[in-house]
Specification:
The chain is mainly alpha-helical. The chain is built from six helices and two strands. The radius of gyration is 20 Å and the shape is elongated.
Length: about 170
C-alpha cells in the first residue's frame, strides 16, 4: 500500500500542483519564442551579422515554412477553425464551468497557442515575398509579440494555479 501512496504522490493528477505541468509550460513557451515561423531565432541574428549565405538560408527557410503554413491555412483553414473552436469551447466549458482542473490547465495552454497559430499564419502571409532587413523586422516583431503573450499567459496561469491550489487545500 505504501508503494501506491508514493507513486500517486510522485505522479499527482492535479495539474497546478504538479511540477510536470510547470515544466511543460516553460518548455512550450521557450520553444514557441525560439522557433519563429519555424525558423530558429539564432538564424535571424546570424543573418543580420554575417549576411551572404546566412541571409540566403534564412530567406529560404522562411519561404519554405511560410508557404507551408499558408498552404495549410488555405486548404484546411475552415476545418481547422471548426475543430479548434469545438476543442477550445469544450475545454473551457469543462474546465471553468464544471471545474475540471486538467481542462483548466489545457485551456490556459491551448488558447494562447491558438492565438500564436493565427499570428503565425498572418505573419507568414506577410513574410512570403519579403527579404533582407524587412524580413528580419517581421520575424523580430513576431517573436516579441510571442514573448509578450507568453509572459501574460504564464502570469495568468500561475495566478489561476495559485488560486486553485489555495482554494482546493492541496498544500
Amino acid at each position: 500500500m505504501d508503494f501506491y501512496v508514493t507513486a500517486f504522490e510522485l505522479i499527482d493528477p492535479r495539474s497546478f500542483s504538479n511540477l510536470w505541468f510547470w515544466i511543460m509550460l516553460a518548455v512550450f513557451w521557450s520553444t514557441a519564442s525560439h522557433y519563429v515561423l519555424g525558423v530558429p531565432f539564432d538564424m535571424v541574428s546570424r543573418a543580420a551579422k554575417q549576411g551572404g549565405q546566412a541571409e540566403q538560408d534564412l530567406e529560404d527557410l522562411v519561404r519554405i515554412n511560410a508557404n507551408r503554413l499558408t498552404y495549410i491555412a488555405d486548404e484546411a483553414g475552415m476545418w481547422l477553425t471548426i475543430f479548434a473552436s469545438f476543442l477550445i469551447t469544450g475545454l473551457v466549458m469543462t474546465g471553468f464551468v464544471y471545474g475540471v482542473e486538467f481542462c483548466q490547465a489545457l485551456s490556459l495552454v491551448m488558447v494562447p497557442m491558438l492565438m500564436i497559430f493565427a499570428l503565425s499564419v498572418w505573419n507568414a502571409r506577410r513574410a512570403r515575398n519579403v527579404s533582407g532587413e524587412a524580413l528580419r523586422k517581421i520575424l523580430k516583431s513576431h517573436r516579441l509579440i510571442i514573448q509578450l503573450l507568453g509572459m501574460v499567459s504564464i502570469l495568468i496561469s500561475s495566478m489561476w494555479g495559485m488560486y486553485v491550489n489555495i482554494t482546493a487545500g492541496v498544500l
